[in-house]
What does this fold into?
Amino acid sequence: MISFSCKAQEETKLEPKLENIAWISGTWHGEAFGGQTEEIWSKPSGGSMMATFKLVADGKVQFYEIEIIREIENSLVLQLKHFDGELKGWETKDETVDFPLKYITKTKVVFEGMTFEKVSEKEMNVYVDIKENDKTETMKFNYKKD
It folds into this structure.
């Protein structure tokens, strides 16, 4: 009996290097929280990638995020900070929300609490675990690339 596994190749884990996740770079748009989202990721340079996120609902900015993915101790970590519409920080001055890397495949970057999934060259899904009232819910953001 001969059997083939197409999934095995896709699930091959890649090294935790920025060049293996460079497909995230670009300008992405979607919808979430009753509004329009925009997320802009830079290409890897200087051992990191950086991004800005903006949510606009009812004609005004609800919040911003500044995000980075950086190489640290032979792995990657995604760190972010939230800001309200007037750029006042949600976290304290030295505090970041950190998502350590779990693994990378050709089409997924899986951090603890956040996953990037490449659907095509112009589409990706981002899954974020959102904790509220001792309950965790995974929210899906579908983005299209400019």
Q: What stands out?
A: Residues 14-145 form a domain with the Lipocalin fold (CATH 2.40.128.20). Residues 6-10 form the longest helix (5 residues). Helices lie at 6-10. The mean pLDDT is 93.
